[in-house]
Design goal:
The structure holds two protein chains of two kinds. By secondary structure, chain A is mostly beta strands. Chain A contains no helices and eleven strands. In chain B, the strands form two sheets. In chain B, strands 2, 4, 5, 9, 10 and 11 form a six-stranded mixed beta sheet that branches. Classes of the chains: A mainly beta, B mainly beta. Chains A and B meet through β4, β5 and β10 of A and β5, β9 and β10 of B.
């Protein structure tokens, strides 16, 4: 099976802009989670989607949002970007309790 | 809230030396998982431990789950340069119905030849 894919792999944006990241889970996986990874905070949970519904949400401001489509593909959106949003954004699809991570999108906010 | 802590944050060893990273949870865990992230890569699942006191081995890697199911360790015997990376432990988030994970901040392992 193909692994989790994420696009784009790299993004450079400026403060105040918005960004949309995409994730395609492993075929057959219906749960998609998003994590933000920074050197200081490590891996932090953003939200989880299952069957097009947001099932869980982490402690991030409302500027961070997401959605899932009927084919289980997911997008996350960050509006009004801040410098502190620079991070690696990882998507993971789940089978049982195990998370299978994609390669991530490296977002740099200037 | 639920916290997962790992020590040390960083360790630099000579090739052939052993390495151990420790993980402690503020709450009892139904299971604990370990992931490895190579430099520039993404976390890759290594193993899941479920039973109290469980010990599992993968070649030179030995994983233990504590009796109280609140702590775990990963021990690497005779490290190799291919072991370089950050090792994360993770436990199911109670507030998510256990469907997502709380990660420790990881232990970065550097191995010098």
């Amino acid at each position: 099976k193909a692994g989790v894919t994420q696009t784009p792999r790299y993004l450079i944006k400026t403060r105040g802009q918005q960004v949309t990241l995409s994730c395609s889970p492993i075929s057959g996986h219906r749960s998609v989670s998003w994590y933000q990874q920074t050197p200081g905070q490590g891996l932090q949970f953003l939200f989880e989607y299952f069957s097009e519904t947001q099932r869980n949400k982490g402690n991030f401001p409302g500027r961070f949002s997401g959605r899932q489509f009927s084919n289980s593909r997911s997008e996350m959106n960050v509006s009004t970007l801040e410098l502190g949003d620079s991070a690696l954004y990882l998507c993971a699809s789940r089978a049982g309790g195990t998370q299978y991570f994609g390669p991530g999108t490296r977002l740099t906010v200037l | 809230g639920q916290q997962v802590m790992q020590i040390p944050q960083y360790q630099h060893v000579q090739e052939g030396e052993d390495f151990t990273t420790y993980c402690n949870s503020s709450t009892t865990l139904s299971n604990i998982q370990w992931y490895k992230q190579r430099p520039g890569g993404h976390p890759v699942f290594l193993i899941q431990l479920v039973k109290s006191g469980e010990v599992k081995k993968q070649k030179r890697l030995t994983f233990q789950f504590g009796e109280a199911k609140k702590n775990s360790s990963l021990h690497i015997t005779a490290t190799q340069t291919t072991d370089v990376g950050t090792y994360f432990c993770a436990g199911p988030r109670e507030d998510s119905g256990y469907s997502t994970l709380t990660f420790g901040k990881g232990t970065m392992l550097l191995v010098s030849p």
